[in-house]
Amino acid sequence: MKAFVVTHYGPDGLKAADVPAPSVGPRDVLVDIRAASINPLDKMVRNGEFKQLLKYKRPFVLGHDLSGVITKVGADVRGLEVGDEVYARPRDLRIGAFAEQLAIDADDVALKPSSLSFEEAAAVPLVALAAWQALVDVADVRPGQKVLVHAGAGGLGSTVIQVAKHLGAHVATTAHTKDVDKVRALGAVEVIDYTRQDFTQVVSGYDVVLDSLGAASLEKSLTVLKPGGLAISVVGPPDPAFATQLGQPLLKPVMALLSRKVRRRARKLGVRYSFFFMRASGAQLATLANLYDAGTLRPVLDRAFPFDRTLDAMAYVEQGKAAGKIVVTR
């Protein structure tokens, strides 16, 4: 089958290739992939940024988000059938959405929201799971709390705004001038135009900040939290709890060293820091599907590319200009 594989780590490491069709284990479903979406995580994995933590054997098929139709069901799978339209973020070490087919652990799969097209559904799994897990599982956001979301017009930020609103939070976000109306429509009550304003001069006393921009933004974000508030970063640095999540406790000292500066800064300010790396969950995708079908959440897409232009889609995402998710379709 046709696929896009990482042959070596680096910016030029992703190539088109013909690879064997996947084998299907007893707990797997085989999915004919109709659409996949591009995430910043794809670039990070392609470049080898997690190679010490996620031991992929090259060449491997890239891609973390997909929608499609089940064509085969493993012997031990219950609740899913051939012909079901599904969406998924396959678990780490079993990714491979940039392909014609993928065998996925059934626990990572859910029926796709019936109100969404395959293209729309492929844009959802990773960002929706990340938003839900960060705000519900990690931050335990409650009605009336104040949540600041950076880059609210992006693929992740636009979903976090919607989930935070659904949870009853007062939502603020940073955005470009051209996206102010867009993020307000998603549920942001307070919008900081980062081309004209420094968010630290506008907001304060927040319960939670979700940062996807990097070290400089994260350090400033610590200063707008109320005592005991929580800054969550999806781009690092990783903290000791991440080693536990990976099942590699021996890496705790390494993670502690990598995040020492930001954790020390947080302690001095009386706030908390957490690195966040989402996990696959078909059960949570089923919950989220109901929210999409109810109209509580909606996907935010920038544009779609045909499958054979997956490299162009990756390049477009890397330019940092996408106003929503980028999807490749078959």
From TrEMBL:
Residues in the signal sequence: none
CDD domains the UniProt entry points to: MDR_like_2
Record Pfam families: ADH_N, ADH_zinc_N_2
GO MF terms, alphabetically ordered: oxidoreductase activity; zinc ion binding
All residue ranges annotated as the Enoyl reductase (ER) domain in the record: 10-328
Sorted UniProt keywords: Oxidoreductase
Top-rank lineage group of the source organism: Bacteria
Protein name (record): NADPH:quinone reductase-like Zn-dependent oxidoreductase
The organism of origin for this protein: Nocardioides kongjuensis
